[in-house]
Every structure is written in structure tokens, then in C-alpha cells.
Here is the input.
Amino acid sequence: MSPIQPGKPTPSGASYDGKGINFSLFSRHAERVELCLFDRYGHETRVDLPARSGDVWHGYLRAAKPGQRYGYRVHGPWQPEKGHRFNPHKLLLDPCAQDVEGEVADDPRFQCGEAEMNTEDSAPVAPKSVVLADDFDWEEDESPRVPWASTVIYEAHVRGLTLCHPEIPEAIRGTYAALGHPVMIAYFKQLGITSLELLPVAYSAHEPRLQRLGLVNYWGYNPLAPYALNARYASGADDNRPREEFQQAVKALHAAGIEVILDVVFNHTAELEESGPVLCQRGVDNKSYYWLTEQGDYHNWTGCGNTLNISDPWVMNWTLECLRYWVEVCHVDGFRFDLATVLGRTPDYRRDAALFQAINADPVLSQCKMIAEPWDIGPGGYQVGNFPAPFAEWNDHFRDISRRYWLYGDVPNGEFARRFAASSDLFQASGRLPSSTINLITAHDGFTLRDVVSFNQKHNEANGEDNRDGSNSNFSHNHGVEGLNAPLLVTELRRRSMHALLTTLLLAQGTPMLLAGDEHGHSQHGNNNAYCQDNALTWLDWAHSDSGLFAFTSALIHLRKCIPALQSDRWWQEGDGNVEWLGQNGEPLNEEAWRQGAHCLQIRLSRRWLLTLNATEEVRDFVLPQGEWHAIPPFAGDNNPILLAVWHGPAHGVCVFQEQS
Here is the structure.
């Protein structure tokens, strides 16, 4: 091996320039940094990084090539009470590693130690960082840049989406390669979605507690190396590394006009609480990366044991560089931020936090879709409606009010209309657009749509926590029978409720997000927190999908694209022709009807489309506004539209009409 040279402090991480590899690592409080190189047999060679520029340690190895496995041992004070947990006996991943080999086992050698430093060497069991070359041929790839007003998001898990798909080649089922397969692209196009939002694909670890139970962290919200693709979802076809396989999928999706949005986790890491494993940030510079108490312990504002301190200038820069990497190297089109309140903590939440300002000013990131999950569990953590542009936000008000309106009947027309009209009370005053609300009925965490109408109680026993985990506030309704098996009458009521909820989601103002599988009746058998279930409970069962429900959902999405009021990102105003709110007899709603509501409502959109909603337990006759109204697909047959003046609305029924010009 040639002698190591000083190299450069930038770019962060390990970068190959065609002649050698530059290594760069931030550590403000370190006293010495060893670069650890591993050959194919696992033999380790250590060399000190010879240069330090400010808080960045760096060195350059001439003749080193892509594929080089490496890690770091970082020396510094062992003072947990002051926030320092340096331990050179622990091999550390590069926080900017672009590829990782190996998994994190439940092994005592990863432990840092409490009162005394744990001196067991973790290298034999530690995952290794891997150097990659940036040589993917994107050809003429361009982002679809779907306007927000036209966006329909489809939230999916890479593995669960295609693992059981009979038309996908078996060798690539459940992988990145399957996402870009012609069968899936044809499916996405037929369904009508514009943007594929993937649960975390970055390298993550399985918590030791789950491993002891024989479970895994299926969702991936236990992050460790945010730059690196998770190899669990790679097929290895054509000897491609995970990143190249993912890039091929993005390229194919873009060619079909479909965006790719990544769910990213910059709120905590897989190092968990103080007794958790030493894998990366804790050993690189614990005091810089995490929010700490005066006693050196972690602030647990995430419920996962620790909280990343994005207000630290370096940690913020690390986050921004990682986001730019995904856009520039992997061509993703946007991000959904898990527990996004953490991003704005100073430690109090501020909507003008430095990270938000930096994203808004960044020429790359400001052009991407940005979506916040606008809460965490810390003080003042619930921040729905309080994120700055360009962020959109998950809107749990829309979810809960929609479920209560249709399944409980305890929501007045006025509150339902407010959510249907993009929750203007939450988003309009701050100068944001209607697309800022991400409307959802279901998401990965919680019941599926079918389970919302089939279970009153959660059934999470398989998670190993005696059914204590998962939310107890679901606003679900089993229609009289708990579970999937039910009499025909109950099944029909459930079908109507699913249709009503889907219609509300897909024809409301704002940006709709559909959970993968809801369109063909996927059930998790009442488990509303299936984060640790990598099995048939979460894998979509394509062989038994509900073709009628798929056709209904697809028709709604395509109908949405025809209604101007839903395709212009402007707030609806009285008299502007976008919306009229009418009662059961076609009359404008009076104050009493708004406040109390009989749960019978007509919504006229862009003058030519009419939604009739009967959220009561009885059949109701609706007098339609003057005009020639035809029930349209999926509410009437394609070749036999029904001309109506009065609609006999079944209980929990909804219909959509179009006026003939």
C-alpha cells in the first residue's frame, strides 16, 4: 500500500477520482482518527488520517479503487457525563458511506460501556463501508417534475410491494429491480398515480430487542447510513451493486413519467439509547451529532432512544449534502421526512430554523418535493400547518375527520367541508397553497383501508409487546363484526364505506396519498403497527386482489385529472365556480346545516361535477341541482350512464355525477 497523503477536506466521505480515493471525516472533538482498510478476507490495515482542516480529518490513498472496504476508529475522551463516548475499540461506519456490507447483529462487542469503556473489538462483526465509483449512465434521464396540483402519491414498501407478484420474475421480486419492471410500470400507469413514495431504502439496522424476538425492523425506520442503499432490497442481478439497481429503477420510472420520493429519517439513529450499540455517530462525535442533557444523556424526542441535533452546523450540512446526493447521484424527485419536527428544533421548534432556510435557498433541493411528517414526541412536537414552504405536510386532521364523518357520524358538515377544501384553516393563512396538505386516509403506520372498516380494536399480538404498541385512537368501525369474515350485508356496508373514504380522498382539494394495497383490499388482520412483520401479513397478495376495488380506485384517480377545481393549486373562494356546497334538496347550506349537519351533502365542483354524500344510516333521496346529470364511472356502467334528477342515496353511500353540456 502506498503511503497515505494529506488529501482534501471535501467532499465528505470517500470519493474516487480515477487515480485514488480521498477520505474525509468530520469529528470536532476527536484527538486522532485511524482509517481501517479491509481486504476481501477481512484482514485489517490501519493508518492514521494525516491531515486536519478545522473539524475535518482527511487523507488520500493513491491507487486505491472502488470496492475498497473501510471503517474508522476514532480516539478522544471517554467522558459520558460530558457527552463524549469515544472508543477506538469500536469500528465505525463512515456517516457518509455510499455503500455498506454486512448487518448489525445483536452482539455485546458493539456495546460502548457505561461506567467503564468496553474494550472488546467490534471489527470482526461490524458492517463495513464500501467505496463506489460514480459512473452510472443516465443517458437522457429527466425528472418528470409533476406539478403539485396534479400529484397523486402512492406509498409503498420496496419488498412488500412486489414480493408476491406472480408476473414479476421470481429472481427480482421484492427488489429495486422490480420497481422498474414493465409489469409494475404498467400497473402504476393503469392505476393513475404520478409519484411513488418509498418507505426508507437507506441502510438501517434491526434493533437488538427485535432480533431476540426473532423479528426484524421491516419498515426501515432505524437508520444508520443514510447515503447507502439497503442491500436487502437488491436482487444482485447482473452483479450490480444496490445503488446501480436502484438507479436503473429510477431511470425506468422517470421514462414512464413517474416520480420517486424517498422516506428519509434524520431524527434519530440505530445507536438507540445510552446502552445501545456503537456503530457510527456515537463514536465519531457523540456530542456534535445528538441532543444531550446537561448530564450527557440523550433527549429522546423521537421515542427511539436518541435525537439528532440538526441545529449543529455540521450535522445540518451533513443532512443537506445527503439530500443533494440522492438528487444528484440517484435522481430522486423528493423526500418525505419522518418525525420532521426534529429538523426544526433549536431545541424549541422554529419554522424559520436554519435547515429550512438552507433548503429553500438551495438551487437543487428547492426544486424537489418536500413532505413533512409534522410531529415528534418532544415538547411542542405537534406542528401540523406550521412548516414553511416548500414543505407539504401529512394532515392527520383530514384522516381523522374523514373517518369520523363516514364511520362515526359525529362530524358536522362544516368541519368535513373544511378538510375537503384543503384544510384552509391550517395552511392558507401562512401563504401556502392547497397542495401543502397531504391528504390521507391510511398510511404505513396504522390500519389498512380494509382493516379500518373491519376492526374496532388493534390486534398487534404478533409484535411481541402484548398488544401495547400501536395507536388506540383509530376511528375505525367494523360494521358490527370484528374481523374479515362477515355476513354478506356487513361486507356490502364495508364496501360502501371504503368507496366513500376513497372518493373523499381522491376528489378532495389537496395532494392525495394512497397506501399501496388499499386499492385491492389488502389486510394486515387488524395489526396497526406492522413495523416488524416481514411476512405475508405485510406483503401484498396480488393473487387475491379485489379487481373491482382496483377499478373503482383507478377510475377515481383518472376522474380527478378531469376536474379543473382539483388541478389548479388555488384556494377555492365563494362564487369562483370551483365549488358549491349544497344540501340534500340542492339548496345552499344555511348556517345551521353547516354547524349541526344532517350528514347529507352535495358538493359541486367546477360547475360540471357533483358529489352526493349520504353519511347516515338510512336511505336518503337527494334532489340534484337543475340540469341533466349522469352518474359516471365508477358509479355507473361505462356504456350506460344514468340520467337523474333524484338520487336514492344508500346508507354510507356516495355518487358522482357529470352535467351534460
Observations:
- The longest strand covers residues 20-26.
